[in-house]
Amino acid sequence: MALDVSPCRATVAWGEQRRLITVVWEDREMAMSESIGAEQLATSQAEGGSASAAELREVHAARGRRALERAAAACRYAGVEEHDAQAVPRDPAAKAANALRLSAQVLAELDHSPLDPAADARCARNAAAAAAIAAQVARDHGGVTEPSAAAYRAALKASQAAMQAAGSEGMGRNDDLNADADAAEADASLAARAAGWV
């Protein structure tokens, strides 16, 4: 059975939902306790851009969904299926399936959580990281060619750009970092197509 990452069809057991919700809230609490200080946070928000929290959610959620589409396509190409996901993943296929499943579930919960650009950016960051893991599996599955190597490099770059947008400098609000992450995501999507993964 192929991996299904459609947010409207994401189904998980109640116990796993509780665990995921706990992870999301812990992630949000961690962001609020970062030692940048209230004054630095206010300055970062003021300098970061004028977009509202709702607009920023759309930006981060859209980027996260595109990254998930890349990850799902790379997994399909590599023959990674839903049952490959494991509680404690050890091999690359299990790691890719697990990262994809968890990212999809967290993104599915996004519409039901309070607006928080920093947390929303971390959701997009996690999706980009899942896509990078899947890209490595796809590259190795098909044999390393120039297109597959380029697609893997682009996936890594997209993951790094998403990490910077979500980091303490941007906190999900910096227009320049968000634009860089969006551009890197677009490049990664094009490279995945060129490699034949999509």
List keywords for this structure.
0% strand; 198 residues; globular; mainly alpha; 7 helices
Please, could you describe this protein's structure?
- There is one protein chain.
- By secondary structure, the protein is mainly alpha-helical.
- It has one domain (52-194).
- Helices cover 72% and strands 0% of the residues.
- The chain has helices spanning 14-32, 37-48, 53-78, 92-109, 117-142, 146-166, 175-194.
- Helix 4 (92-109) packs antiparallel against helix 5 and helix 6 (146-166) packs antiparallel against helix 7 (175-194).
- The longest helix has 26 residues, at 53-78.
What's the layout of helices and strands?
Blueprint: H1 14-32, H2 37-48, H3 53-78, H4 92-109, H5 117-142, H6 146-166, H7 175-194
